[in-house]
Amino acid sequence: MAEAQNIPAGSTTSGSVAVAGESTVATRMSAPPSFDVADFPVPHGREEEWRFTPLERLRGLHDGTAVATGGGVRVEVEAPEGVIVETVARDDARLGRAGTPVDRVAAQAYSSFEKASVVSVPREAVLGEPIRISVHGEGGTAFGHQVIELGAFAEAVVVIDHTGDAVLAANVDYVLGDGARLTVVSVQDWDDTAVHVAQHNALVGRDASFRSIVVTFGGDLVRLHPRVTYAGPGGEAELFGLYFTDAGQHQEHRLLVDHNVPHCRSNVAYKGALQGQNAHAVWIGDVLIEAAAEGTDTYELNRNLVLTDGARVDSVPNLEIETGEIVGAGHASATGRFEDEQLFYLMSRGIPADEARRLVVRGFFAELVQQIGVEDVQERLIAKIDAELEASVA
């Protein structure tokens, strides 16, 4: 598996497996500081932030023709005792605190939702069970907004599960008080016809810890924007991702970690497997270290395993540093084909070919699956990986 480390933003590598093109942190930061969709031009596909996305498959989310319909999605929240779950109007002051829209679809979602869900964990509360949020598509078009906020020194795990069929544009805000610890597992297990575009904004307080695990399997088109900023020194952010892209699917993950205050840390690791004709995965990883962010320690990694011919990966890591007073910074991107030598090694020890293939892919994802920390979710994802592999053999 070939690996490229510390690739300058202007470099390009091309081939039948992967293409990495120019993408700058400045482009990721170029959106106007606005929640109004009118402030964002309609994309045409030539823009840097849209050039990998098949706009015709967005079902009108990008140009204003998508209209919310009845029966779009059903949202249910299961929370341990002490957690406050509210449905609020658009004028609630807690909405939008974690960040402004990065593109027109996020702005469209913010301008179009009617009610938002706010889940609050009180100060110093330590939850023994996860908060579970089910987002189930019922065949229509919907716009949503979700806020998860933790008081100072609170600790929580949140599992957000997306299933069914829908066209959904949404914003999700994570607001962490000082010293808080939040783990979020966002699972995209949509039906094959679903379209899901979302922006995830995390505002990490002083000495707080944020861990995000994004898992993407289903959907016709899924495009996610995880973003992190810091509200005080000492914050930590870990962004993990796992995606399995099948024939005809487009799965796109575009990350930005903005180190805007001193002495914060971030670690990004996303892994993907692809199989089938026209399977397309896009990973954009941007890290910005601003001039004020002395003492930053950051690293980002993307690895892709191409299981069959006909699949394509675009992987673009970027790092922009405005101060030399940092602890460390680096990035790497690697894409490779499934190696027959690994299969031969296992088969020579009596393991059937199908089982050997399953073991190799499981091993590729194992480290990220273990980061989830929720046993039933981990077991479900392993079963999903096995089902994907069985489908490719059938």
Description:
With 394 residues, this protein is mostly beta strands. Helices cover 15% and strands 43% of the residues. It is built from 5 helices and 17 strands. The protein has helices at residues 25-28, 104-112, 340-347, 353-370, 375-393, and strands at residues 2-5, 73-78, 84-88, 116-121, 131-150, 155-176, 181-188, 195-204, 209-216, 221-230, 236-245, 250-259, 265-274, 280-289, 297-306, 312-321, 328-337. It has a 17-stranded mixed beta sheet that branches. The chain starts with a strand and ends with a helix. Mean pLDDT is 88; it is low at 1-24.
The tally of helices reads 5
* Total count of strands: 17
Distance between the termini: 27 Å
The portion of residues assigned to helices is 10-25%
Outline the fold blueprint:
Elements: E1 2-5, H1 25-28, E2 73-78, E3 84-88, H2 104-112, E4 116-121, E5 131-150, E6 155-176, E7 181-188, E8 195-204, E9 209-216, E10 221-230, E11 236-245, E12 250-259, E13 265-274, E14 280-289, E15 297-306, E16 312-321, E17 328-337, H3 340-347, H4 353-370, H5 375-393
Parallel strand pairs: 4-5, 5-6, 6-7, 6-8, 7-9, 8-10, 9-11, 10-12, 11-13, 12-14, 13-15, 14-16, 15-17
Antiparallel strand pairs: 1-17, 2-5, 3-4
Helix pairs in contact: 3-4, 4-5
